[in-house]
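ok so I'm stuck.
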Amino acid sequence: MVSLFKQLARCVSSSHFQVAERALYYWNNEYIMSLITENAAVILPIMFPALYRNTKAHWNKTIHGLIYNALKLFMEMNHKLFDECSQKYKIEKQKEKEKLRDRDSAWMKIESKARQNPNYKNFASNQPELYRPNDNDDDDGVATNITAKEIEQEAKEVRTSEVSIFELIKLIDMRK
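replied:
not stuck anymore, here's the structure
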């Protein structure tokens, strides 16, 4: 069962909308819903990161609606567990950011030491500037701010065909 939901989490995270959509349609299956209900303590920690990440990352508004509905179901099933998963997700994102900062700091120290080497100018003049991406991830651990009311509201708004992707992004940014 764990491997099934790990695979579903990978499928939900797919940028291909049909893959994500088909995976999210499992929430309409009675047997899958009974598994989820009986084993929420095991399944929610597996599914939450993929679902939450895609509330911001997926480009297809149909997927957004399906994700909000899945999150809403999880929240209604076990609100306390949902909050725990939300906190855990925020902590993990914070640890990732700290790790990236530490890595960046280590590279800056290495570059500083390299510049002190007398042969550095000879070597550096023949090398292109190295690219190190900055951590500008827009998923700043906002998961702790997510509430049942917001999920319900966003799920309703996404279902209406009048909501554009820009309005959805605005709604999500307002949570920050």
